[in-house]
Design brief:
392 residues; alpha/beta; Rossmann fold; seven-stranded mixed sheet; six-stranded parallel sheet; 12 helices; 18 strands; 32% helix; binds flavin-adenine dinucleotide; binds uridine-5'-diphosphate
Length: 392
């Protein structure tokens, strides 16, 4: 059987595009993944004790885009969930992001919101322009809080000092003068009611979609006939690292099950200053599952291993640009997703990028005037689209 599309990767990017092309355009799609499961890094499953866990670390869905939320709602029901994190600092567990309670608890004060704003202002060092991840935090709350909450966590997580990382990394975590202790403030914060993998099963459940697991695309691309390819793996790997390796940060996950109902007092506890792991996640908070045992995961950042995080800094963006130029000159291959576009995307942003890419592909076909099986004139890396700019 001939396929219209060979899609490399069954994560959000690949699965959303498979669904759109199959359902909306009636295309025949083959999705391959070299792992033994669908859902990419969002994969979840029941462990030996029967607790639902996230194999590749905690995944919490949040978005400001109604379109993206509505799109995914075609494939899952939801369970409302607002994520909360504590940071272990100086022997106390304190709300993270830093808020009014963090400061009062840490220093034994009783400041009001107004006073804490003045407190931050008195500590902040002027940084103009704000270029690095150090500038972001020191420019808002000063050096002491930066050192206690951010500096060492970041060095552990990335193997780099915050001064060597783009501002966008620590800018993901806000500072608050109120008592809001939620990790995210997005308008939609929910977990798929029956888990991410079940949602992916529904996304991929279409007669025009065939999924092959344990399959590297390089093992099938010369045997399986297809017209165009959508690639969601690491972009440097696609081009045989010809300009050198793009740095990705890797993680090792240590999963444990404990014979008691609760392990810790929050879904995630961050350890900025102690241990070699960054954080411990207890999954039952995320999933709402009731069980007499509980399962947790430790995250140990690594220099080598599976690529999980693109590393946002100028020299890496420059190297990525060289690969992007190659991608733009590669006919019939589209590059999309966190690894293929080398961007520190959340899940909703990947869904947004895939939906934007779908429009681009169908737009190109329409512009070419053939409506059906036209060939792209060049490979394309989807341009970054803010998640809330996408309309399905
Ligand atoms: P992936 O999920 O990486 O899928 C790519 C797939 O391509 C993989 O399954 C891979 O096996 C396959 N592949 C690659 N090369 C080949 C090949 N040669 N042949 C065949 N298959 C191939 N986002 C959030 O919104 N909220 C969170 O709380 C959150 N937490 C995270 C925690 C961690 C520890 C990590 C690492 C990420 C987290 N994310 C979170 C980000 C989220 O995982 C990604 O945005 C999203 O899963 C990326 O989807 P993707 O399809 O681009 O890539
Ligand atoms: N960060 C930190 N201390 C914390 C939490 C986060 O220094 O307690 C920094 C760190 O550099 C981290 C970044 O902020 O990589 C983004 O945090 P987020 O929780 O969004 O990371 P992710 O969930 O993507 O790993």
């Amino acid at each position: 059987m001939a396929f219209d599309y060979l899609i490399v990767g069954a994560g959000f990017a690949g699965s959303v595009l498979a669904e759109r092309l199959a359902r909306v355009c009636n295309k025949k799609v083959l999705v391959v993944d070299r792992r033994n499961h669908i859902a990419g890094n969002a994969y979840d499953h029941y462990d030996n004790a029967g607790v639902l866990i996230h194999k590749y670390g905690p995944h919490i869905f949040h978005t400001n885009s109604r379109d993206i939320f509505d799109y995914l709602s075609n494939f899952t029901q939801w369970r409302g969930y607002e994520h909360r994190v504590l940071a272990s600092v100086d022997g106390q567990l304190l709300p993270m992001p830093i808020n009014l309670d963090t400061i009062n608890k840490m220093y034994g004060l009783n400041l009001t919101s107004f006073q804490v704003e003045e407190f931050f202002a008195s500590k902040a060092e002027k940084r103009d322009p704000v270029k690095t991840s150090e500038d972001v935090v020191v420019g808002k709350v000063g050096r002491e809080l930066y050192e206690k909450f951010f500096k060492h966590y970041t060095r552990k997580q990335w193997g780099l000092d915050p001064s060597e990382l783009d501002a966008l990394v620590t800018a993901r975590v806000p500072t608050r003068t109120n008592r809001d202790d939620r990790y995210f403030t997005d308008s939609y914060q929910s977990m798929p009611l029956h888990g991410f993998t079940r949602m992916f099963e529904n996304i991929l459940d279409h007669p025009n979609i065939k999924v092959m697991l344990n399959t590297d695309y390089r093992d099938v691309r010369d045997f399986v006939p297809f017209k165009e390819m959508i690639y969601t793996g690491p972009i440097d790997e696609y081009f045989d690292y010809q300009f050198g390796k793009l740095p990705y940060r890797c993680l090792e996950f240590k999963h444990e099950t404990h014979d008691r109902p609760k392990f810790q007092s929050a879904a995630v506890v961050n350890y900025p200053n102690d241990y070699t792991y960054t954080r411990i996640t207890e999954f039952k908070y995320l999933t709402g599952q009731e069980h007499h045992k509980t399962s947790i995961v430790y995250e140990f950042p690594q220099a080598e291993g599976d690529p999980y995080y693109p590393i946002p800094r100028a020299e890496n963006s420059a190297l990525y640009k060289r690969y992007q130029e190659l991608a733009d000159q590669t006919p019939g291959v589209y590059f999309v997703g966190r690894l293929a576009s080398y961007r520190y995307y959340n899940m909703d942003q990947v869904v947004g990028a895939a939906l934007t890419m779908f429009k681009k592909i169908t737009g190109e076909k329409r512009a070419a005037g053939n409506g059906t099986n036209g060939h792209a004139t060049g490979g394309r890396v989807v341009s970054p689209a803010p998640a809330d700019a996408v309309r399905v």
